[in-house]
Amino acid sequence: MDENRAKQILSSSAEIEVKYKDVSVWIDALNGDGTATVHLRGPLEERSIVEVKDLSE
């Protein structure tokens, strides 16, 4: 995924499924250095910093 699409998803009011290595995640923030802070969908709130290019729809 490119950073512009990640920005669109982050600012969207729609629920858009995003995956990181085939796992559904929420984008919490774009860090401005090619990385994003994400957390798994579901009850766990553990956050990770991942490369935006490794995210997919």
TrEMBL record:
Keywords: Sporulation. Its main location: other. Pfam families: SspH (PF08141). It is found in: Spore core. It comes from the Bacteria. InterPro entries: SASP_SspH. Belongs to the SspH family. This is Small, acid-soluble spore protein, H family. It comes from Bacillus seohaeanensis.
